[in-house]
């Protein structure tokens, strides 16, 4: 990782091959890589500056490897994360179990981390409904247990528009939240207020 300043750490979590890297690629470079699947080894880092009102917020995105053999490493990467995008593949029920595992882990150790639960590869089930292996209501019920604020969105990376909108929606939201936190910090610094209090965790769901 470069010595670049990062305002908010975002971590991508989820089983291998669910589309974490593709999401980051889409968001950072606006492209979808076609070709043989290449699994992430350990984790990859990318810094993405975003203009929010009159400030530039730099998101540090950690794209972790989904393979269970890297599980211990992934724990290092979510430490201190402001947001986690927990992905699962709508056509793979095991990936949903794995997503729940990461949500539980985050809730245990990163109380302040916002969690975005994202069902990916929506295009595959568009073409063939029988491929869907994670029921919409199962995901909704699961998310309902944690929070009443749900955002149900289609996440399909092979379709430019839809996926780009979803990425922008998620990452922009994180930047705006970080922007308000920075503003609050500046204001508190001026007044000498301690902002190091614990807040409840947040949970959003993106699924279709
Ligand atoms: N059809 C379809 N394929 C996708 C989508 N997103 C990713 N893929 C494909 O799924 C495979 C895995 O994508 P990656 O983004 O590398 O998955 P990952 O979760 O980062 O995998 P790991 O690095 O092993 O953790 C690749 O072959 C992608 O082209 C999608 O929205 N639709």
Residue stretches low in confidence (pLDDT < 50, at least 5 long) are 148-154, 156-162, 193-201
Largest sheet, strands/sense/barrel: 6 strands, mixed
CATH topology-level fold name: Rossmann fold
Helical run tally: 6
User: Would you tell me the overall average pLDDT?
Assistant: 76
Number of domains: 1
Strand content: 15-25%
CATH class: Alpha Beta
SSE sequence, one letter per element? EHEEHEHEHHHE
How many β-strand stretches?
A: 6
Bound molecules: guanosine-5'-triphosphate
Structural class: alpha/beta
Strand order of the largest sheet: 2-3-1-4-5-6
Q: What do we call the CATH homologous superfamily?
A: P-loop containing nucleotide triphosphate hydrolases
Radius of gyration of CA atoms, rounded to a whole number: 17 Å
**CATH-defined architecture:** 3-Layer(aba) Sandwich
Shape verdict: globular
Share of residues in helices: 25-40%
**Assembly form of the protein:** single chain
Distance between the termini: 35 Å
Provide structural commentary.
- The chain contains six helices and six strands, in the order βαββαβαβαααβ.
- By secondary structure, the protein is α/β, with parallel strands linked by helices.
- It has one domain: P-loop containing nucleotide triphosphate hydrolases (Rossmann fold, 3-Layer(aba) Sandwich).
- Strands 2-3-1-4-5-6 form a six-stranded mixed beta sheet, with helices on both faces.
- α1 crosses α6.
- It is globular, with a radius of gyration of 17 Å.
- It starts with 7 loop residues before the first strand and ends with a strand.
- The structure holds guanosine-5'-triphosphate.
- Guanosine-5'-triphosphate binds next to α1 and α4.
- One of its GO terms (biological process) is autophagy.
- Interacts with ZFYVE20. Does not interact with the GDP dissociation inhibitors ARHGDIA and ARHGDIB.
- Its cofactor is Mg(2+).
- This is Ras-related protein Rab-24.
- InterPro entries: P-loop_NTPase, Small_GTP-bd, Small_GTPase.
